[in-house]
Amino acid sequence: MDARRHRLPLSAFATSLVASLAIAAPSAYAATNCPGADQLPLLSTTASAKSATLCLINQQRAANGIAALRSEPTLDAAATSYAQSMVEERFFAHVSPGGQTIQDRLASYISGTRSYSVGENLAWGQSVLGSPASTVNAWMHSQGHRDNILNAGFEEVGVGIVSGSPRGGLLDAGATYATEFGFREVAGGSSPTEASAASVSIDVTAPKARKAPAKAKRLSAKTKRKISAQCHRIARRTKASSKTRRARYDRCVKTRTLAARKSAR
To answer: What is the model's pTM?
Structure first.
């Protein structure tokens, strides 16, 4: 029986010359401490722009007492591929014209997991508004994007940046961003890799027909102690406030208790 749980936070933000009037200028501190943060990403500078974007995101998390995100190759590849698709196919959305969803994009990331949580932030910008500093600044001034960036539940991240925008055109000097956030647990209860992430919460999962729930079986004291110990270890790895660690522990216990009851039926 499938005991996985998942949450799909999504958030898109397009920046343009008009939208810049409503966006505060990025701070000198961010640009100084994250090399390449103020530069428009070009084909030759994409790698440094991705590093700058992750650096800026982690600065925001650190300022709020949240553990830094760690880059994860599968998420990184998915983010880059999706940013490229938006530029080539001229669209800007969390669902592609062909119907591909975030679950489709991250299928290899979430495959075989006990539980997972994924999210996505999108953006595109022209000229200076396409820089990592302007993009992260815009996300932090949009509640949904900000929620993803400051979501302590995410641990891994992939950043994709491609030159050009979904609008296209010969005079289009811009950049398109896709950021995939994630957390996953394998059957043994540990994260399979290390990484980082964050974005706005919109559940895009179609409801499935469900059978009438069976009566939950009581768990033994031994099983409860085992779940508690496992969740304590996970919570201790969360470098954040005691309140955040406690929330992580409670969420872990709830998820694993439900899974244990289902498997015992």
So the answer is: 0.63
Name the residue among 11, 14, 13 with its Cα closest to residue 172.
14
- What backbone torsions phi and psi does residue 175 show, to the nearest 5 degrees? -150, 145
Rounded distance between C-alpha atoms, residue 120 and residue 101, angstroms: 11
Query: And the tokens for 215?
Result: 């009566």
pLDDT tens digit sequence for 221-244: 777 778 787 777 777 776 677 777
End-to-end CA gap in the chain = 10
CA distance 53 to 38: 10
Residue 204 to residue 7: CA distance in whole angstroms: 9
Q: The tokens 């647990």 sit on which residue?
A: 185
Distances (CA, A) of 185 to 10, 155, 242, 256: 20, 11, 22, 11
